[in-house]
């Protein structure tokens, strides 16, 4: 397993990390992802550690805290061997302090996460969404206090817009607060919007990408193809409305190229889709999920080999889309591109 620094920080993370959204699954969304119990979770953690994957990502909102609880049970007795990433901000209840990133919410949600995880520190705490109702200075000063208290070690965000992240980084620099070193983002061959603004921002500001849903919400598993019905076992029947939008015709074009490259390499469609992401700028780690041992071992096979330059170019070509304004001039027009050369 290769390791990369997380953004501009000194924290080294594996290029593949494990997403624990399937742990303790309940409800219409997370129940469809999976319902891994503590015993099975411990086995999946065993396999990850054997392969060198030591970063495990979860969130308080995943099955109302059950994911954190199951992960905590699965890593019991080997806390020093793992890195824990969790997230907070999304609603955990109906009360006025049950959502957002106010000082009160951040302190309470951090304490709750520590209790559920059975640990006294969190390696990476990420804000699951931007809270426009709380000043960024309040958020950052609270995180600064939690870092100083030893309860969290690094801070990051997830699903921020470019201006939200840059505003926060500027405030951190202005006041000497900890900078966000990670941005957990949606990025896949079927969804390359991350490249338009967030990738250049991450490269410029030293914010590493932790990629969620690298298989486009299950659409790049190799089971969904043009002219064929959605498989009965697909979780998309229950969860499509929660995930990122994907243009079906574009998806089918991408899958056909993935199929061709799978035939050339002897690799699976998911392995190729994940491997492509590992070669993209600013990507620190790709978060893989699995409902069982077979899925996990297949996804772990995405590393240890490389696509050829020609294969990468084919995947780039079939998956590219025209960026919206104001990004497209910098990609298509020489004068604009000279001012800001593309990083991809």
Automatic annotation (TrEMBL):
InterPro entries: AKR (IPR020471), AKR_Detox_Biosynth (IPR050523), Aldo/ket_reductase_CS (IPR018170), NAD(P)_OxRdtase_dom_sf (IPR036812), NADP_OxRdtase_dom (IPR023210). Residues 18-318 form the NADP-dependent oxidoreductase domain. The keyword Zinc does not apply. CDD domains: AKR_PsAKR. One of its GO terms (molecular function) is oxidoreductase activity. This is Aldo/keto reductase. Keywords: Oxidoreductase. GO terms for cellular component: cytosol. SUPFAM superfamilies: NAD(P)-linked oxidoreductase. It comes from Rhizobium leguminosarum.
């Amino acid at each position: 397993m290769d390791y990369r620094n997380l953004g501009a920080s000194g924290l080294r993370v594996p290029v593949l990390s494990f997403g624990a959204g399937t742990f303790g699954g309940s409800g219409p969304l997370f129940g469809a992802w999976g319902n891994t119990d503590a015993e099975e979770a411990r086995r999946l953690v065993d396999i990850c550690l054997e392969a060198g994957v030591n970063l495990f990502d979860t969130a308080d909102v995943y099955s109302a805290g059950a994911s954190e609880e199951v992960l905590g049970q699965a890593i019991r007795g080997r806390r020093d061997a793992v890195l824990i990433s969790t997230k907070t901000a999304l609603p955990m209840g109906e009360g006025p302090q049950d959502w957002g990133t106010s000082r009160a919410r951040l302190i309470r949600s951090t304490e709750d996460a520590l209790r559920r995880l059975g640990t006294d520190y969190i390696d990476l705490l990420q804000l699951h969404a931007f809270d426009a109702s709380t000043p960024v200075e309040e958020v950052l000063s609270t995180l600064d206090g939690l870092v100083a208290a030893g309860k969290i070690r690094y801070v990051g965000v997830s699903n921020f817009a470019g201006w939200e992240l840059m505003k926060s980084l500027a405030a951190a620099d202005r006041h000497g607060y900890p900078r966000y070193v990670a941005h957990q983002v949606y990025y896949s061959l079927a969804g390359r919007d991350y490249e338009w603004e967030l990738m250049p921002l991450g490269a410029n500001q030293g914010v590493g990408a932790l990629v969620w849903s690298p298989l486009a919400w299950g659409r790049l598993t190799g089971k969904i193809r043009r002219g064929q019905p959605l498989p009965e076992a697909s979780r998309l029947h229950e969860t499509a409305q929660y995930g990122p939008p994907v243009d079906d015709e574009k998806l089918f074009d991408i899958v056909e190229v993935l199929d061709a490259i799978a035939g050339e390499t002897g690799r699976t469609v998911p392995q190729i889709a994940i491997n492509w992401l590992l070669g993209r700028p600013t990507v620190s780690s790709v978060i893989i999920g699995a409902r069982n041992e077979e899925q996990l071992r297949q996804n772990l096979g995405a590393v240890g080999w490389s696509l050829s330059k020609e294969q990468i170019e084919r995947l780039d070509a079939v998956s590219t889309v025209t960026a919206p304004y104001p990004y497209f001039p910098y990609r298509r027009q020489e004068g604009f591109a000279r001012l800001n050369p593309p990083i991809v």
